[in-house]
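Bench notes, afternoon.
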Amino acid sequence: MHSLLAYVGPDTMLPVASVLAAIAGALLFCWRWIVGLFRKVFGLGRKPAAKRPEPAATSAR
């Protein structure tokens, strides 16, 4: 009898999957903001890029 109550069919799983997909979509939509907030809170900012030397001027032929 108890195993019958534990049955999870497609009529139960589809709404759950839909809610999980909506949460994942909202996270992906705001991903840059979330990562920026995480970096700001934990002090993990990007390191400044090293300056590249200017290429030597080549003579035109």
